[in-house]
Design brief:
about 325 residues; mainly beta; 23-stranded parallel sheet
Length: about 325
Amino acid sequence: ESAVPTDNPAIGLFDCERVRVAQCSLSGTQIGVWMDDGGEDLVIENNQINAHVDKGGQESGIVGVGVARLTGRVQVLGNDIQGYVRGVVINNQPLGRSFSTASYSTVMGNRIVLGRFQSNQEAVAIESACAFGVVSENQIMLAAEDSTGIMVRGLGALIERNRIQTQEQIESQIAILLGGDDEMFTGGITVAQNWIQGCTGNIVAEQVAGLRIKNNDFAGDSGDELAVSLSECTVVNVDDNTLSGCTIGVFASQSEDIQVQNNHIVDGGAAVLCERCVRVNIANNQISNCRNGGIFVALCLARAAIIGNRLNYVGAEGKNVLASSIA
């Protein structure tokens, strides 16, 4: 059963098909729009959805747009959503186990602001657990600790052209979180052309099979930013990204078949770190002004190749640190 009370949404659609909710203004709501008990081909478009604000000024809504147990796709398009623990959720059990039957759903062009909460729930702007979902062209502002911009689990998702940033440097803000659920397979994911600034983790992937990270722009704010983190992943391509001002550019641990190619990594700490990986190819990257070093490969088995990279002015602040090293 869902951990979210669903008996009092501002707008509820239950076992509905081909319904459109558009140009509505919802305010002072714990739950904005809720869809459940079957149904498909629903469109939530161009609405203003604002959470309840208590006397202390803490925004305390639960879910802005909730897509629970549906049998087909939903489109969430162009909405303004503010002040919820979850902005848009596509999950049969919101705040529960990750799984959705609303395959091919789309979350596009929304503007979502996550505020500060008196809640033990992690704040997430967009959560999608459906197969072949699309999360595109959303603008997300994170202003709370332990918050995530986009959380995706499942098969075949496309995450593209989103803009994610923070109002200030706060610990434990992740822009895009992929996988990390032992009970649900996550794979065939593409993350492309996103712009991310100021998050402590830009892309964090755990237990993902088949991942492409391409043409993204990651900008740090000279804090503790980690641009790309891969843990227990297989078949990953990190290609043609721009990473600037990040403490670590690309970090891979206990992963297999990792390609890090044609990236531009500048003005950060260390550029690429791989440990306990199998079959790693680090090629044709441009790395400059990384104060703690360039490319490090440790305890990697089978094959590791470092080919055709250009490294300039790296390791200026490290002692006994080489531009490239293999241990």
